[in-house]
Design goal:
Elements: E1 2-6, H1 10-22, E2 26-30, H2 41-44, E3 54-57, E4 66-69, H3 71-82, H4 93-119, H5 125-146, H6 159-174, H7 183-193, H8 196-202
Parallel strand pairs: 1-2
Antiparallel strand pairs: 1-3, 3-4
Helix pairs in contact: 1-3, 1-6, 1-8, 4-5, 4-6, 5-7
The structure holds glutathione.
Glutathione (GSH) is lined by residues 9-12, 33, 38, 51-53, 70-72.
Amino acid sequence: MIDLYAAGTSNGMRARIALEECGLAYNFHLVDLAKGEHKKPEFVALNPFAQIPVLIDSEGPGGKPVTLHQSAAILMYAAEKSGKFLPKDPASRPAFLEALMSTATDITPQFGAVNAAVRAPEVHQPTADILKARLKHLFKTWDGLLGKRKYAAGEEFTIADLSLYAGYWRTRGVLPDLVAGMPNLERWGKEMDARPGIQRALKI
Ligand SMILES: N[C@@H](CCC(=O)N[C@@H](CS)C(=O)NCC(=O)O)C(=O)O
């Protein structure tokens, strides 16, 4: 059995979307970040960085238990365990890895920086504006890419789409201006919105 500890953030939802879309059964444990549940010793024992998401699989590789943090690692783990949403042709793998890393290591941390800047007790507007412009540039670039290809990594739907969606969904909800006026991203986003696995994952 799989246990997922997460919250309704982009990283948390990247992990939950992965499990739902890959069709893996799991128990969901909502971690209350506002109450600091992720800083309790029992949670830090699962992830020394004291962050969600964390996945525990009692039947990992070789039948041995696995504890895993990092939302992109959880996404890859779910894809490999289920055999779903990884590129079939090895020649597509470099583009797939590029898309996966951009979505997980560019977009989500940039969203985190913007979110922290705009929610700071004293907002420093020039800094907030620079960070917002950087995030918008990332989405604008993805809008251009999705004008030339159907999915994040090419013509095949992969977990890179799930990864991009987590950051897109969160930004659209919190700072909609940063993804507005981007028709290709919107076309792709609507297709992702309609996926039943994604819809199940986002119901908290
Ligand atoms: N690189 C990590 C980042 C995880 C992360 O930043 N988690 C945030 C929520 S999205 C968190 O737990 N924040 C609480 C804190 O850092 O105190 C991942 O992809 O999972």
